[in-house]
Amino acid sequence: MFARFTEEARKAVIRAGILALDAGRPTLETDLMLLALAETRPFTLRSFTATAAAVRERVGAGDTGALLSTLGIDVDVVRRRTRAGADDPAAWRLRRSRVRPLRVMLYGPLGQLPLAMHARKVVEVALWRPGPVTGEHLMWGLLADGANGTARVLSDLGVDLRDLVQELGMPVARRSA
What we know:
Blueprint: H1 7-22, H2 30-40, H3 52-59, H4 64-69, H5 75-82, E1 93-96, E2 104-108, E3 111-114, H6 117-128, H7 135-144, H8 150-156, H9 161-168
Antiparallel strand pairs: 1-2, 2-3
Helix pairs in contact: 1-2, 2-3, 2-7, 6-7
Organism: Nonomuraea phyllanthi
InterPro entries: Clp_N_dom_sf
Protein name: Clp R domain-containing protein
């Protein structure tokens, strides 16, 4: 499935997977996909004004370094030594199960992780768009599913959703009177 992804979009999905594995989560959720997009910025969306720190705080990804630093352990040093090359996009695969077509898995050197339903929808919407899958397509996928909470998080962080939707070129449903 990564064949159509740009290098930057692929790195964003991989970053989301690494965040989920670091947090000990059983699945990759949309909140971590949003955080990964905020961290990697695989797009040029001027209306995406949320910072990675603000998104991290809002989605509750936590900071494992603070607790371990009280024990004298530098998490960044440990990660650099034990995870050299783990974020290399060539080492990761995104695949749909042939037996269970609604199951999409992210495989990499740090482990395997199923995409939760809403995260799978993000990827499917991004793939539905013509051309290569970009960071903009991933953001479109996050915003296309109103049930995943992305719009609420971005709105709470002061992002003008109308501007973002317009910049993405998303169709807007008109309400009739």
